[in-house]
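Entry 14. Ran structure prediction on the chain below.
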Amino acid sequence: MHELGPEPNFNESMYFNFVDPGQSVSGFFRLGNRANEGTAEMTACLYLPEGPVAFMFRRAETTSNDAFDAGGMRFDVLEPFISLRVSYSGPVLILDDPWRLSDPGTAFRHSPTADAEVELAFTGCSPPVGGEPDEPREGPGEEFARGHYEQLVEATGSVTVGPDKWVVSGLGLRDHSWGPRYWQAPWYYRWLTGNFGSDFGFMGSHIARRHGDGLRSGFVWRHGTLHMCDDVRLRTTEEGRDRTHRTLELVLRSGSQRWAVTGRVQAMVPLRNRRTAPDGTSLVTRISEGLTRWETEDGHIGYGLAEYLDQIVDGTPVGAGLD
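Output, structure tokens:
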């Protein structure tokens, strides 16, 4: 954990995702401490077999940044970058149609619930990538994370939702970030994660600014070697009136090396963040979480999350049609 900064919107968060294709169970978990605001954001999302999603979001009271422990969820670092534990005990919404979350108030009032228990051990399977730069990369008002690193991981343990229990053995990615954060700071971003096992995995990112292309970055883990990407290019096919991502063509480059993968979203969870600006304007951000099946040019299969964040202006995601 890092020293709590003076910024009103100081956030320290950790996030984990995993996919177990054998059990058809996947998910992600996040805790974000916003101690200067007196809250911690807790998100648990589980993609279950045959299509339903188990979901919970809470703002729990907190006044410190001493640990990730809020809203029934806890993260423990047993050995840094080697062994971590995620646990959750509490209720979840059962959503046969995850698109109900586009109106979260209605979804929380009218969806059935079940008790959930999650106990997962995450083990690092690549070096961590990132850190805290010496000089800020973001201008005033565009801060999203002062420091940030990511790491490919393996996940083992159990997931229980209501009467059903799955023993999990999957692959995923974790990240850890700290510093000032408003979800409205990026104009839009695309954050793409994929894990194929011990020989291949990646993260690709495009953070767009309101004026200018923004930052394209990422990494590829290939045969035990880490390659930092100097370019990331993406082509998205959208669907529906909400214009969410459905198929993806991703190219990552590091110097003269190139890796291309195609992705197909298998399940979509639309999340929303809303904040009131100082002038009283309501700012709305959509964060679309697509469980994605990836395939390399030579036919290898992997899985991960494709997270698309967009500011919503006049009812339209600002990054629609732009990659």
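The chain has two domains: 1-181, 183-323. Will compare against last week's run tomorrow.
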